[in-house]
Amino acid sequence: MPEDQHDGADSAEEGRPQLRMWDEAGQETAIGSLDDGERRWKILVIAEPVAEDLVRGWLSFRLDDERYDTAPVIMEETVARVVERAVELPEPMLRQLFSSARR
User: pTM of the prediction?
Assistant: First the structure.
């Protein structure tokens, strides 16, 4: 990188607002499956850091080329905690989220 270009740390030192890139943006983790009576859907949680100490997560139900995503339904401090919370969701809640995502 040329010396006349500043990286994020240089700008932060100058007190200017920063746009920060997150290494974990959009991290997908498989957490199980859901049988809708006809087919078995793979369930993934997608965790996206939105601030240094805030991560939002949503569920994605997938089968072959079909995909249904929820709106963000989990907010936590870390990606790991978003995944933990998603794994803890009871089956009736997963079914309700799946139904809502398909609309």
Answer: 0.74
